[in-house]
Amino acid sequence: MRNLLLVLVVLVLLSYVPPVRSGPNAFIRQMFSTCWRLKGNCKKKCSKDEVFHVLCDNMSLCCVVLIYLPG
């Protein structure tokens, strides 16, 4: 009987706790959002010092600084 009461209390308390946002942390997200041999970044829009080179997997632009592009 005491175990049942303890389980019920724990379940009630867990129902009030907000869920934690799951997913990769910032470092892992940054590693997977890189492109062009880890020299570029997948973005919606490239900055002034970057050039669009290829498309990323999620249909965003791979923005690469000019010094890292081939010849």
UniProtKB/TrEMBL annotation:
Signal peptide interval: 1-22
InterPro entries: Beta-defensin, Beta_defensin_dom
UniProt subcellular location: Secreted
Domain Beta-defensin: 34-63
The keyword Secreted is annotated on this UniProt entry: yes
Pfam families in the record: Defensin_beta_2
Record-linked Gene3D superfamilies: Antimicrobial Peptide, Beta-defensin 2, Chain A
Keywords assigned by UniProt, alphabetized: Antibiotic, Antimicrobial, Defensin, Disulfide bond, Secreted, Signal
Family: Belongs to the beta-defensin family.
Function summary: Has antibacterial activity.
Protein name: Beta-defensin
Organism: Spermophilus dauricus (Daurian ground squirrel)
